[in-house]
Specification:
Blueprint (H helix, E strand, L loop, with lengths): L2 H12 L13 E4 L14 E4 L6 H8 L1 H7 L14 E3 L3 E5 L5 E2 L7
Antiparallel strand pairs: 1-2, 3-4, 4-5
Length: 110
């Protein structure tokens, strides 16, 4: 998938709102599995966050790697973002698919 299509699906999924705090506009596509570790431009690997790498929710995620791993906001190099549950506001723990959907633990769109 190309970056443009992945961003389009991300924005549709998030409704342009930060997927962690929901109180601010999402303005940054955060890679759960870093691109330097092989992370791809896919909706399952992306979260729409407010702030930058040092501010807002994006800053919180990057400054708190232990919590971020526990919440699924960061996926290790050996992990598959599509198979790693992630905590998202309004939905709690869900899976993210590459069609831009939230999937609950029962495999249904959330």
């Amino acid at each position: 998938m190309n970056e443009r299509k992945a961003r389009e699906l991300l924005y549709q999924r998030s409704s342009h709102v930060c997927e962690l705090c929901t109180s601010r506009r999402g303005n940054n596509a955060h890679h759960r599995k870093a691109r330097s570790l092989g992370g791809l431009w896919t909706p399952s690997n992306l979260l729409h966050l407010c702030g930058s790498g040092t501010t807002g929710c994006h800053g919180y995620v990057t400054s708190n790697p232990k919590i971020a791993r526990e919440q699924g906001w960061i996926v290790p190099s050996w992990g598959d973002p599509a198979k790693a549950p992630v905590w998202v506001a309004w939905r709690e723990f869900v899976f993210l698919d590459d069609h831009g959907n939230y999937i609950n633990k029962d495999g249904e769109a959330a």
